[in-house]
């Protein structure tokens, strides 16, 4: 009868090899290097809603009123503030006519009155936002000057509008770039003086 010793020894080694734990000892730690990707560029500035042109102040957003009323909706507050700021920044615009328009729905007399009241409401809001009242004039044209004569909802919406037309200008009142630069230089000088004072 053959001895079972060698067979048992082989089985024992195999079992130890399968069930044992092998430790890896690294003398130098593994380092993973990388750079974070740059942040995405900021989104572009939205185009201005209000711009001065040769004969008008162009407003690319409608002023909203309550239905059939001269009450300005709150969602137009920021737009009117922007219009007022543009007028304040351009004192050479001596006289600006605020012109109200309606669609053709309703009677001619009613639309004339509504357009006048809406133009006056806009003028009052601009004065509240700092524009001198003597620079402004409000008139209503009712339904007499439509942009679109078709009888559709889109045409009616387009015809309901407020326009800002330049009546009189005075270039001597136009802010100069030199004046703005002098203001910047004065700010720099004041800052320098303040730093010297802190050092003393």
Strand content: 15-25%
Order of helices and strands: HEEHEHEHEH
Radius of gyration: 38 Å
* CATH homologous group name of the domain at 50-177: OmpA-like domain
Give the name of the CATH architecture of the domain at 50-177.
Answer: 2-Layer Sandwich
Q: Biggest β-sheet, characterized?
A: 5 strands, mixed
Shape: elongated
User: What ranges have pLDDT less than 50 throughout 5 or more consecutive residues?
Assistant: 4-17, 194-200
Protein structure class: alpha+beta
Helix content: 25-40%
In DSSP terms (H or I, runs of 4 or more residues), the helix count works out at 5
The CATH topology of the domain at 50-177, please? 60s Ribosomal Protein L30, Chain: A
* The CATH class of the domain at 50-177: Alpha Beta
Strand order of the largest sheet: 1-2-5-3-4
What is the typical, i.e. mean, pLDDT? 83
Alpha-carbon distance between the two ends: 109 Å
